[in-house]
Every structure is written in structure tokens, then in C-alpha cells.
Specification:
Elements (H helix, E strand, L loop, with lengths): L1 H18 L2 H16 L9 H25 L18 H4 L3 H7 L1 H6 L5 H12 L4 H8 L3 H18 L7 H17 L2 H7 L5 E2 L14 E2 L1 H16 L5 E8 L2 E8 L2 E7 L8
Helix pairs in contact: 1-2, 1-3, 2-3, 3-8, 7-9, 8-9, 10-11
């Protein structure tokens, strides 16, 4: 099964971007392996296309079955963060701008604006560079329909996607500055780092306490984070923070007694958060 193992990173990349959940993506890849290992492959011309077809259809089926769960989800639903600094996941990030962008939490959340079919076509063509002929075979649709789905999806994405990607150095500088300003209660620094219309989107995962609605505006965001820092300082829970690469970008992780509490990732625009 060497062919399958060589395509495993690609298959996980497709499934994770389709579903926004690492554990579910792993289940999809494992299911694809079981189907591949028991299939007759004499007439398979391309193992890559064959496996991509299996994974894409499994994801589409999963999204249909998960629709009711998403609709009844308590609070905001955000993609499951993925620790990409580990060696076994570094290949998931990819090298192209499209691959790196499509892995960010903000972009994965943006994909929720698309229908499952639009999401599949957009990711396969824009991110993974499948041509329309390949996509039409994967989805069992004609090429014209696939082109139409892609252009509709791209228009929706382009309406909301950032125009420029900040450098890694800029992202790290703003993240470290934000963390220091919160710890020191430096309102002037926070004001300079945060855009006036900054928004906090928080997902409790159905378990932890989190803001169930977006927190809008610089003043409310500063008040929220300074309140968290104050609570941590006077708590006996031994809070501490670390900086890790989450979904290919720098992020702040909050811990208590070795238990992960929160992950904060940032979207940067015009040198501000």
C-alpha cells in the first residue's frame, strides 16, 4: 500500500479543508484506505484521482449528515485548530500561497459560506491545482457545471478574503506585541495594535466557556482580553501561555496545569490585528 501512504498527506489536506475538523478528516482518510485496500484496481488509471474521488465523496456525504448538527450547534462554530509545527503535519501546510492561505482558521471559516459542492470544486481547483476535467470526473459532473461552481465560489470568497498576506515576521511581531500589551495592561500599545473594527470570534466546542456572540470593536475587545489577564493573575490555577504554529500561522495557547484552555489565532490587515 505504498501508493496510498504517499498520497496520505494530500488526502488529509483535502479532507481537513473540506470538513474543518482534524479528527473527522483522519476518519475519512482511514475509511478511504479501507475502501482502497479492498478494491480491484486493474482499471484504475490514476491512483491519485481514484483516492481523491473517494475522499471528496466521503467528505460531501459527511457534510450532508453533519448539517443538522451544525445548525443546532451552541454558539459559534469555528474550524478545529491544527498544530502544524510538528513534523508529521508540516507537509499539510504546503508551499504555495493558496495552500498556506486555505489552511488558516479565518479562511476555513470563510469556506462555510460555500455549499459543499462549491467548496469541493474551489479547493480542488484553486488550492490543489486539479484541472476541470479531473474535477468533473471526481464529482461526476460536466466541465461546464464545474466551471460555474468554481466561479460562483471564487466570487464569494474574493468578496471577503484579505487582499494581502502579511509576512511571517509581521505576524509574529504583532502577536508578541499583543501578548506583552495584555500582560502589562498597556492600553496605548493595544490601541495601536488593534484595528478599530476588530472582532473576536470564539468557539466553545460545546464544552468550555466562550463568548457565544462575536465581540465587536476595539474597546470591547481590549476589555475582554484585559479581563482574562486579570483573572489569570489572581487565579490559583497556574496559568501560562506558549506560542505555537497553528494552521500554518503563529498563535497563542493558554494553559492551566498542563491542560490546554484556549487557542488564539490572528488575522492581520494593514499591519494591525
Amino acid at each position: 500500500m505504498e501508493d496510498f501512504q504517499s498520497y496520505r498527506p494530500l488526502l488529509f489536506s483535502i479532507a481537513y479543508r473540506m470538513l474543518g475538523r482534524a479528527s473527522e478528516a483522519e476518519d475519512i482518510v482511514q475509511d478511504a484506505y479501507l475502501r482502497y485496500s479492498s478494491a480491484s484496481l486493474e482499471e484504475v488509471r490514476s491512483v491519485k484521482s481514484y483516492l481523491s474521488t473517494i475522499v471528496t465523496h466521503l467528505c460531501l456525504d459527511h457534510l450532508k449528515s453533519a448539517q443538522v448538527e451544525r445548525e443546532n450547534y451552541v454558539g459559534l462554530w469555528l474550524p478545529e485548530p491544527l498544530l502544524t509545527s510538528t513534523n508529521n503535519l508540516s507537509s499539510i501546510v504546503g508551499n504555495s500561497l493558496e495552500e498556506r492561505e486555505s489552511l488558516s482558521v479565518a479562511f476555513l471559516a470563510l469556506l462555510e459560506r460555500l455549499t459543499p459542492q462549491e467548496r469541493a470544486v474551489f479547493l480542488l481547483h484553486e488550492v490543489f491545482d486539479y484541472d476541470y476535467k479531473e474535477i468533473s470526473e471526481i464529482l461526476d459532473k460536466n466541465e461546464a457545471s464545474c466551471r460555474q461552481l468554481f466561479h460562483r465560489a471564487k466570487a464569494r470568497i474574493d468578496e471577503h478574503r484579505p487582499r494581502f498576506e502579511p509576512s511571517r515576521e509581521t505576524q509574529e511581531r504583532l502577536m508578541v506585541g499583543f501578548l506583552a500589551a495584555c500582560q502589562e495592561g498597556d492600553l496605548e500599545m493595544l490601541t495601536s495594535l488593534l484595528k478599530e473594527d476588530v472582532v473576536i470570534w470564539a468557539d466553545s466546542g460545546g464544552k468550555a466557556t466562550a463568548a457565544r456572540r462575536p465581540i465587536l470593536g476595539r474597546d470591547f475587545v481590549m476589555r475582554f482580553y484585559l479581563g482574562l489577564v486579570k483573572k489569570a493573575i489572581f487565579s490559583k490555577e497556574n496559568f501560562y501561555v506558549t506560542c505555537e504554529e497553528i494552521n500554518g500561522l503563529p498563535a497563542i495557547l493558554t494553559w492551566s496545569r498542563e491542560k490546554l484552555l484556549t487557542i488564539t489565532s490572528f488575522e492581520i490587515s494593514d499591519e494591525q490585528i
